[in-house]
Design a protein that fits this description.
This protein is α/β, with parallel strands linked by helices and 392 residues long. It has 15 helices and 18 strands. Strand 1, helix 2 and strand 2 form a beta-alpha-beta unit.
Amino acid sequence: MRTLLAGALAAALALPALPASATIKASVSGEAREEINTAFFVDRYKALTDYVAAASGLEVRLTFGRDLSRELQRTRSGGYDLIIGPAHVVGSAVRYGYEPVARFPGEETAVFLATEASGVTSLEGAKGKRLAMPPTDSLATYLARGELNAKGLQAKRHFAEIREFRYHEAALLALEFGQADVAVADRRLAEDWLKRNKGRILLETKAAPGTSVAVLGSLDKPTKDKLRAAFLAPNPKVLAGAQLAGLDVTKMTPITVADFEYVSTLGYFTPRVLDGARIVTAEEAAELMKKGVPIYDTRNKEEYTDRHIKGAVSLPYGEKSRKEVGFDQTKDSFDLTKLAQDKNSPVIFACNGAECWKSYKASVAAIKAGYKQVYWFRGGFPEWRAKGLPTQ
């Protein structure tokens, strides 16, 4: 009870560091292809966090992140103290104040793969073809969309049809059964597919680290040092008593911010312009708020409760549409009746930074509804917090 009260008091007072005696909130996330819902996956990472607790002397409370979109959101608001997961989740965490610690062996790349029957020999030559992809929040899709952006190719315009599947294997089956001409998949799965089918790799992304570990930067130094030592300087006696099936901590190596430079700059960044709205900085948003302009936090209730811009009003944007320009607004939910009914009244929308589309979509919805003074705070909560402006 004391630990819980101490944690609540620390959050309320916005203390910059977590006391070493507090419970460490840890998240382990994985992709569908890693069978995160299986008992083997759960037992394996439960054993790892039990080992970390024994090695560090800290209490570790474990959460399994089965929704990678949600895990990416949580990295932006500092929702966990310790993150173990795929490269794009850890890369996002590094961008938003986490410190990389260690990685397990191996690298991850994604490929665009075409059947021989499609006649496609390059990504540019795939224009007008059908594309099959793993889930939006998978690392392979994350990397693939980043490469499309780098080539200046807007996926929905370049391909005649884009279908997303729950598993990498399902996207490859769509290719095999003629339901797609091009597919995105993990490199290793693609190589296995090519052993059984005729086709070619059109493009391979750069490599991203395998499963990695990061700690919240605002933790106190003794706590961070204990967690780092658990992964990079394991105590042989503690290790001997651990049941780490399939996970060899002794083979983990240190990682730095540079290791995530590639993957952390990818993702679904919002546009830098929005017709009908003015994009504002944190300082400009603060000045508008002083004049009485309301700022609406379009993140979900959980993120808002964790921490938010002081004075912001919670107005969640229910996002089901794709993260792209020209999104289908009919798939989403957003209660415009909560805004001032005078459409000449100024409004500000914010969410979780340049990668978060909710405030962009809310701004678009307000513009379409006839609001004349729409301010889009594109940098959102991460920029506000980085500037040291007040939060609750």
